[in-house]
Design a protein that fits this description.
Helix content is about 75%, strand content about 5%. It has 12 helices and 3 strands, in the order αβαααβαααβααααα. It has a 3-stranded mixed beta sheet. α3 packs antiparallel against α5 and α5 packs antiparallel against α10. The longest helix has about 35 residues. It is globular. The protein starts with a helix and ends with a helix.
Length: about 325
Amino acid sequence: MVTNSESQNLTSISEFHLMELTEDPELQPVLVGLFLSMYLVTVLGNLLIILAVSSDSHLHTPMYFFLANLSLADICFISTMVPKLIMNTQSHSRVFAYVDCLMQMSLFILSGCMDDMLLTVMAYDRFVAICHPLNYSVIMNPRLCGFLVLMSFLISLFDSQLHNLIVLNFRYFKDVEITNFFFDPSQLLNLACSNTLTNNIVIYFVVTLSGCLPISGILFSYCKIVSSILRIPSSVGRSKAFSTCGTHLAVVCLFYGTGLAVYLGSTVSLSSRTSAVFSVMYTVVSPMLNPFIYRLRNRDIKTALRRMHSNAYNLRA
């Protein structure tokens, strides 16, 4: 319950103010160019993976089906923030309408949680491929693959709408200043509710749903994978089995490492600039590096991209 003295410090608002990338006007065009370049590289790289998987029949397998969906989620993830960030920086405006805030937060959580779920599904796919290779095609049939992607989307949608419902129940906010370049849900909860217990319960629930449970599934899958690989008598066979998981593990470490740093950092006293650095790593750098990780470490993707380039060159000739 809010007392009379506390209610004087709370305001009913229709807009928020985001943190500027920099207060130096000479540095702003440089940062705009940097973020625009990173955004275009991310979209192009992930689109190439989607085109490679969809056009090459050799990649019509469960693993690459999940990878194509992960690339689509990454495009949506970065597109919810970077274009608006560039527009606001160019126009020197930090104002964001409350409705736009809810929309961005909803899309951010939806695409981010979708990444979480798909990485977990891909770990399960590797578990079946290595631990049950003879039954792989039977277990990972097209119906199950579609069901897993659909369930990932529904869980992500539930997480997203849960945040919206919670924020919509708040009528007053302590401040209009958001100490980040996008609407971090945890920061909105801190501004919207004076009850820190409620804030922490919501934050820890989200971390459990989109962080701890997926990570537990990934760890369980890889414990079984490592156990199976160590039983392979041939060193060449062990190396080949480990190589099929290396790319996925690299993406998992990059995504979850930066993501958990952002959300857990909201519960401790970090400077706004430090939090912004973690946020950039999570929302921009991670989706940008994923196509490079898969392209550099995955021979099938590189072969498919070369085949696409060759076909395009032949059509042009």
